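Retry 2 of 3 after timeout on previous attempt. Resubmitting structure tokens to design endpoint.
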């Protein structure tokens, strides 16, 4: 039983079913209803080297499955490239440091002079001081990818149930034996909790504390002039601008200080639209804490690409990303009959298929595709005593 019909749950269901396991995938709403259908739709190299094996395994799997997908994935076979531009001295300094992890990961990074930036992307503001062209960035349709993985799981015999929430885990002593839904008790030999930021609501009641919190991220869809951008375009240091927090928790005494951090990442989508992001804010309420975030995102986009001031705003949306304190996912066994696969932050698409492969090998007693230790949820349980 896999609980959660986002990219992580769908990938786990597919990898398990493809290996011959009997699988039921439960989703409380529609497939990809949460952040898995509400993100930028990009595979980029993660700057954290610990995540690289999981990320690379994911991209390989997506490219393998693209042609067989029952729905169009719009997946770039080759990277489109990401151009990060510095418009002031601070961004110039940040950018030099921010691109070292990509070089260390073996990704080609070209240092650009202002004339090079203007040649590659004439629409970037003329006051640009320099930039970096990172030779990565595969665009894809994230909701379609999630749905495709679930449908391909079904092709291998999995049962996919949406609009059926799992309200609680069933236990027999120390063992988890299934879940409780609106239709009653559903038994399972193994339960994988892949419910994103809602995972803790299932784990906490049985005394399993995995510190997974939520962060809201906004995106804005614009209709730019045709051919405005040829690459992914970002402000230098965009990866760090939306910051890491100490432990992701919001303290009651500082509630009034909670606000969103924003950065600029522009995605020229294959449908001719442009997706502008991004933001991150601790989740306090079911609805957006700061509804003015899209305007801040658009201001940053116009600062970087002034021609976007005339673009039509088509829509804006948000999704809630599940975070752990060290911003690495928790993937592995928690108790007899119980595993977790959650806490991927804004990198669910980047890490999805690799997570599914790791879960499948763990549950079926096979060799893992990469070192599982950095993702062991026991690191949090031990720290909590």
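Retry 2 succeeded. Sequence:
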């Amino acid at each position: 039983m896999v609980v959660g019909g986002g990219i992580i749950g769908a990938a786990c269901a597919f990898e398990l079913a493809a290996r011959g396991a009997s699988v039921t995938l439960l989703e409380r709403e529609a497939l990809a209803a949460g952040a898995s259908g509400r993100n930028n739709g990009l595979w980029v190299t993660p700057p954290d080297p610990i995540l690289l094996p999981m990320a690379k395994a994911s991209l390989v799997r997506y490219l393998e499955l693209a042609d067989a997908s029952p729905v169009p994935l719009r997946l770039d076979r080759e990277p489109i490239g990401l151009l990060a531009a510095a418009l002031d001295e601070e961004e110039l300094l940040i950018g030099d440091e921010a691109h070292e992890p990509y070089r260390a990961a073996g990704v080609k990074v070209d240092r650009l002079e202002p004339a090079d930036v203007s040649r590659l992307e004439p629409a970037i503001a003329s006051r640009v001081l320099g930039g970096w062209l990172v030779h990565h960035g595969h665009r894809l349709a994230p909701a379609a990818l999630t749905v495709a993985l679930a449908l391909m799981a079904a092709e291998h015999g999995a049962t996919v149930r949406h609009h059926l929430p799992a309200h609680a885990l069933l236990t027999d002593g120390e063992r988890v034996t299934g879940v409780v839904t609106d239709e009653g008790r559903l038994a399972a030999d193994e339960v994988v909790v892949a419910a994103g930021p809602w995972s803790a609501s299932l784990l906490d009641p049985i005394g399993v504390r995995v510190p997974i919190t939520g962060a809201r991220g906004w995106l804005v869809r614009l209709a730019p002039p045709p051919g405005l951008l040829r690459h992914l375009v970002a402000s230098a240091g965009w990866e760090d601008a939306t910051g890491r927090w100490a432990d992701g928790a919001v303290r009651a005494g500082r509630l009034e200080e909670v606000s969103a951090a924003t950065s600029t990442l522009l995605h020229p989508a294959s449908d001719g639209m442009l997706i502008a992001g991004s933001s991150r804010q601790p989740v306090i309420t079911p609805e957006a804490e700061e509804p003015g975030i899209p305007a801040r995102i658009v201001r940053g986009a116009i600062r970087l690409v002034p021609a976007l001031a005339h673009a039509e705003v088509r829509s804006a949306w948000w999704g809630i990303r599940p975070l752990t304190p060290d911003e690495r996912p928790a993937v592995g066994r928690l108790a007899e009959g119980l595993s977790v696969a959650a806490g991927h932050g804004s990198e669910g698409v980047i890490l999805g298929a690799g997570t599914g492969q790791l879960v499948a090998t763990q549950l079926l007693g096979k060799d893992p595709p990469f070192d599982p230790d950095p993702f062991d949820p026991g690191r949090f349980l031990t720290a909590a005593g």
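Attempt log closed. The chain is about 25% helix and 25% strand.
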